[in-house]
Amino acid sequence: MTITRFETGTRMSQAVVHNGTVYLAGQVADHVSNNEGVEAQTKDILAQIDALLASVGSDKTRLLSATIYLADMSTFAEMNRAWDGWVAAGHAPARATVEAKLAGPQYRVEISVIAATGA
């Protein structure tokens, strides 16, 4: 059984593929400011997820699971506006959304997904 790691650094890999499944690290927005809202950060993250999935031969129609971390659960509806516009119709993954203290105050949302590969 082969384990393939992508964009590997000292601390973590952005994606790991094993046995037809891709595991993505938690993704946060690349371009954040303290004034940027959850919907904008979510859209940024979802674009990153699209790119990472494509780089390993998968896409959002192959999502199995998603975990969404919000710094403030009162922004749940704002995050869902971006999510609902992105998730492929008929391909919604199992999903959990929780409130959590994130790595820095500029981050308002973090998303991690697991997907099947195209192989």
TrEMBL record:
Pfam family, one: Ribonuc_L-PSP
InterPro entries linked to this entry: RidA_CS (IPR019897), RutC-like_sf (IPR035959), YjgF/YER057c/UK114 (IPR006175), YoaB-like (IPR035709)
SUPFAM superfamilies: YjgF-like
Highest taxon, organism lineage: Bacteria
Family membership: Belongs to the RutC family.
PANTHER family per record: PTHR47328, RUTC FAMILY PROTEIN YOAB
Protein's recorded name: Endoribonuclease
